[in-house]
Amino acid sequence: MKGILKIAYKLLVNDKGKFAALLVGITFAVFLMVMMTSMFAGILHRSSSTVINIGAKVWVMDSAVNTTANNIPMPDYILDAIRSIDGVKYAMPLYSGAALVKLRNGVYQSVTVVGLDDTSLYGRPELIEGTIDDIYAENAFVVVKDAEFEKLGNPTRGTEFEINDHRGVIVGIARVTSSGLFGVPTLYTTYKRAIQYIPSMRYTVSFIMIEPKSSDAVPYIKKQVALLGYEALTKDEFTQKISRFYKYQTGLGINLLLMTVISFVLGLSISGQTFYTFILENLDKFGALKAIGAKGKELVYVILFQATFAALTGYGLGVGVASFLIAMAKLRLPSYAARITYANLGYAFIMVLIIAGFSGYIGIRKVLRIEPFDIFRG
Amino acid sequence: MGNVAVMAKELVKWFGEEDAKTYAVRGVSFDAHFGEMLYIVGPSGSGKTTLLSMISGILRPNKGSVVVEDKDIWSLTSDEIAEFRLSTVGFVFQDYHLFPRLTTLENVAIPLILKKLDWNESIQVAAKFLEIVGLKERAHLPPVKLSTGEQQRVAIARAIASSPDLLIFDEPTASLDGETGRRILDFVKKNILNERRCIIIVTHDNRIFEYADKIMKMSDGKIMDVEKGGSDEE
């Protein structure tokens, strides 16, 4: 079998024009599919940035909450009730809200303000300048140095701004694992200062973060929280809930899915058409092979090998080009959200196998139908 | 004359059904022997190619039987017939059907590769056959770089590479000038034909009749006459 596959390889690769056209088609399709799904994965990842950055194991919220950006504040007594649940090691409130800050140059800028529990500062970011204790200073805020940092005028420690008629001062610069989705800078402060500086509703607790005594305690905690009329989700569950919201309730998912499907159809048609032409041009040769004594299954192997080889080479090139461009784009554009995941690569791989299968199928159909007698008849 | 290599009995082949039914071969019987070069000649549409296809295991007859080396080939399964063609029959097609993307040497090696010989071994054996047809120096060229006569010889090398007992030539001189055609047939007669091999040639080129041992004339799907060929010394 190795010999016939070597023949198949040479027939494919030595036809440089067709092989190049096949590779371009498949590479382009894989490139587009990987880019689309990577952008989507990046957007989904960023949509959960608060959950990822804060890092709490269990989150309590109103069951109508779908993202960290739109929360429904809970009364303080819920925090007390949760702290009394068996299995809860500790529970902390978190404030998360939007605000407008007025910079020294008079420009207004939207920001996300995260208020950490005053006593524990649970969920605090890693500081690259300043110390976390400075957050207790008067009007103190810690700014996150991410892709949106420069929208605050590249602040340094001591930079002042105005927030809802209050003075704010940058006391530290932090970094986080994931940048946010909405293109606004993030400021950390204490919970008390956050609710004091930013106009809020009657209730002020955006989320309650729980550290369970053990992972076995989580189901019980979730049950007890449900009895209180709220929802407790693990970090992964909350991330998935946010992802589901963006996928199915915003139109984002369907639009990107359509783009991915278009890329797939494009690749399918280019490679299907090129492979079909390749088979047609060699049809008499396949007939001659049949006449010489090649069995049907051997010709099937030849075509499947050619289709699979072209598809996998195109897959490798497509993934390579997409990875390179994403890496380059990230160097130039820090806010570029694309993120290649194993799942994306897996989806693209499945799509490429479908392309190979389809191209192979139309080739096999044609070749199995050719009668060696047609070769004699010319 | 050697033993019987091919025994065709009452072969009938038609195409189409009912009103469109057309007979290509009408009850043809003949024997071909080892060590013999048999020509099947006749005008276009006389059924030569159809007959050739039936005796070489390519086209199933509607009636009749073909026995090659004591084996009724049309009682075999399709895979067995493919195996029969590979091991027993060598084909030289009218248009040669060489693979333009492979080298001359690789083209010759194809039947050996189909016989599951190792790649390197196939190439080594193919080189020997290429040497027999005098194209050793052209081994690494693609067939398109060769003259028509050279391509014909490559096709012959490919046909004999698997050492078949039955060689089938379909209009071997159709694309060649008279001199080249004669030279090829002379070469085949002297170097390829032997007492363990039977060669059947379909042609209507009377310039090469001198190399035939036996000439079978066909017309309208029937054998009209069988003559001794120009080379028959008996």
From TrEMBL, chain A:
This protein's UniProt keywords: Cell membrane, Membrane, Transmembrane, Transmembrane helix, Transport
Membrane-spanning residues: 20-44, 254-279, 299-328, 340-364
Pfam family, one: MacB_PCD
Location in the cell: Cell membrane
Domain of life of the organism encoding this protein: Bacteria
Protein name: ABC transporter
Protein's membrane topology: Multi-pass membrane protein
One cellular component (GO) term of this entry: plasma membrane
UniProt keyword annotation of tRNA processing present: no
TrEMBL record, chain B:
UniProt keywords, alphabetically: ATP-binding, Nucleotide-binding, Transport
Domain ABC transporter: 6-234
PROSITE patterns, sorted: ABC_TRANSPORTER_2
Family membership noted in the UniProt record: Belongs to the ABC transporter superfamily.
CDD domains: ABC_MJ0796_LolCDE_FtsE (cd03255)
Name of the protein: ABC transporter ATP-binding
Organism of origin: Candidatus Sulfobium mesophilum
One MF annotation (Gene Ontology) recorded for this entry: ATP binding
Gene3D superfamilies from the UniProt entry: P-loop containing nucleotide triphosphate hydrolases
Alphabetized InterPro entries for the sequence: AAA+_ATPase, ABC_transporter-like_ATP-bd, MacB-like_ATP-bd, P-loop_NTPase
